[in-house]
Amino acid sequence: MKDLRSTFLDHLKKHLQGPAIPLRIVFWDGHEYAFSPTPLVTMHIHSARILSRMVMGSALDVLGEAYVEGDVGMEGRYQDLLAVAEAVGDAFPGKKSAGGKGFLSRWGWAQAHSKARDAEAIRYHYDVSNDFYRLWLDRNMVYSCGYFKTGTEDIHQAQEQKLDHICRKLHLQPGERLLDIGCGWGGLLSWAARNYGIHGVGVTLSEEQFAYARERMEREGLADRVEIRLQDYRDIPEEGAFDKVSSVGMFEHVGRAKLGEYFGVIRRVLKEGGWAMNHGITAPQQDDENGHHQGSDFIDKYVFPDGEIPHLWRVVREMAGQHLEVLDVENLRPHYAQTLIHWVRRLEERKDEAIAMVGEKRYRIWAIYMAASAHAFQRNWSALHQVLVVKQEQLGLTPRPWERRYQYVDHSYREAEVNWGEV
To answer: Which intervals hold domain DUF7884 (predicted)?
Structure first.
């Protein structure tokens, strides 16, 4: 009768057909097996229990959790680790559930995305330490997809290009009021105030971000023009008060069932004819919204509790239901893959400092999560869309540019030559 290790290896050999996978496995008793004469990845499995869990469940979730908890050791570049982990995960896909994501099904849909629950989830992810994020984010502390024009830019340039791309896309003008929902550490509001002359309000549920962003506005001399609030988006009191609204990397925390309410808030706070831009991760296929998939248990447990990724069709439908007319849609999937590669490399370079700040476990969570996310965007398992809308409740045609050229040309054109299409 075969032992568990032999059964595990035979199953892998059977399913890993084609080119040799560059993997070497070292078992708890020192036994080794290499699937390639030149392995790029070495996996140290410290107990037979891990093999049992991979055979019985989703290997990708099991590997991610075991790596974080120290039950599995991995040697190699993160991009190689993820390619190997994907192959192993495909060999042991586990059972797929139609009941939704693991974390949510354990806690129940009724509790998910209450104000208290959302605040707890945001604190878990973002209130790690401002100093930790400062180790690997860019100089503007922007924690969302960058914007690359050539692909050769460093993370600082890519993020400044993204901030400017958003400001141009929203066609920000001096003196306009901009609301940034989920303002993070204040990077977009700072950029928009300094370079476009806006007056802004930013809201966040993260106490660490709130403290940093308020201090930042004071330090940069912007406190009289930019207000930072520790506030749930549902509690924003203004009605028809903002010319423009931005939301960058926030609506993944809203929940699909709450999207109508979320876009309803944007409609409520906007002036008639005001513009909003939603920048967020989307599901690449409609079927990916509801089904449990490999890796989702790990993300739910360790990274983004209660996170939900809608498909673009749902985003557009919910926007339309709130009288938000779509003007422009842009898919930045390659840009996010490139951004995440920059982040994980910068984190690896500061590994010792990161571990000293947040511990080995937290370091492993962020490193493997960002590497896995880069892999997901490269493989089209995740997408990223910027959707630009105008509030159009009254009949007729609100003024707007006839073309997109205003998004890409210099400031002189933006100020002087935009032809607002009044008919």
So the answer is: 20-92
Residues for the chain: how many in total? 423
Provide the pLDDT for residue 105. 29
Looking at the structure of the chain, the number of domains it has is 2
For position 48, what pLDDT does the model report? Answer: 87
**CATH code at position 366:** 3.40.50.150
- Whether the per-residue pLDDT at 95 is higher than 70: the answer is no
CATH number of the domain enclosing 11: 3.30.1050.10
**Could you give the angle at which helices 360-378 and 351-358 cross, rounded to 10 degrees?**
120
Cα 371 from Cα 366, distance rounded (Å): 8
| CB-based contacts of 151-158 (< 8 A; 24+ apart in sequence) | 151/338, 154/342, 155/339, 155/342, 155/343, 155/346, 158/335, 158/338, 158/339, 158/342
Give the range of the structural domain holding residue 84, as residue numbers without chain letter.
4-91
Is residue 307 a part of any domain in this protein? Answer: yes
| 97 domain residue, yes or no | no
Q: In terms of domains, do 264 and 218 share one?
A: yes
Please answer whether residues 178 and 244 qualify as being in contact, where contact means their C-beta atoms are separated by less than 8 angstroms.
Answer: yes
The span from the CA of 308 to the CA of 297, in Å, is: 12
Examine residue 31 and state whether it is found in any structural domain, yes or no.
yes
Q: Is the dihedral of CA 88, 93, 99, 105 positive or negative?
A: negative
Q: What does DSSP say about strands 72-75 and 383-391: parallel, antiparallel, or unpaired?
A: unpaired
Identify the CA nearest to 397 among candidates 276, 275, 273.
273
Per-residue pLDDT of 177-213, as tens digits, reads 999 999 999 999 999 999 999 999 999 999 999 999 9
Q: Measured between alpha carbons, how far is 159 from 190 in angstroms, rounded to an integer? A: 13
Task: Give, rounded to a whole angstrom, the gap between the first and last alpha carbons of the chain.
Answer: 81
- Work out the percent of the chain whose per-residue pLDDT is above 90: 53
Q: Dihedral of CA 316/104/185/236: which sign?
A: positive
360 falls within a domain: yes
Average pLDDT, the chain: 84
Quick one: 173 and 297 in the same domain?
yes
